[in-house]
Amino acid sequence: MPSRCSAYKCWNNSNQGYVLVRYPSDEILKRKWIAAVGRGKNWLPNNSQRLCEVSSYV
Ligand SMILES: [Zn+2]
């Protein structure tokens, strides 16, 4: 099953050749990513969720 980018309105997935990265384990960094994906403060990524390389959240 291809993994899809979890950013708001981003549909890039691994089948299209995008590199998808896991959310960082570092809490502070992870919070920055969560703020940047635009899904709201209460949204949390689960272990299978990824972000694509073109999303400049890092
Ligand atoms: Zn993306």
Task: Write the SSE topology.
Elements: E1 20-22, H1 27-37, E2 50-52
Antiparallel strand pairs: 1-2
The structure holds zinc ion.
Organism: Mycetomoellerius zeteki
Pfam families: THAP
InterPro entries: THAP_Znf
User: Could you tell me the radius of gyration in angstroms?
Assistant: 11 Å
Tell me the distance between the termini: 25 Å
Indicate the proportion of strand residues: 5-15%
What portion of residues is helical? 10-25%
Shape: globular
Average the pLDDT over all residues and give the rounded result. Answer: 88
Total number of helical segments?
A: 1
Please provide the ordered H/E string of secondary-structure elements.
EHE
Profile the largest sheet: 2 strands, antiparallel
**Which regions have little confidence, pLDDT < 50, spanning 5+ residues?**
none
Please state the oligomeric state of the protein chains shown.
single chain
**Order of the strands making up the biggest sheet:** 1-2
Sheet/helix structural class: alpha+beta
Total strand segments: 2
Bound molecules: zinc ion
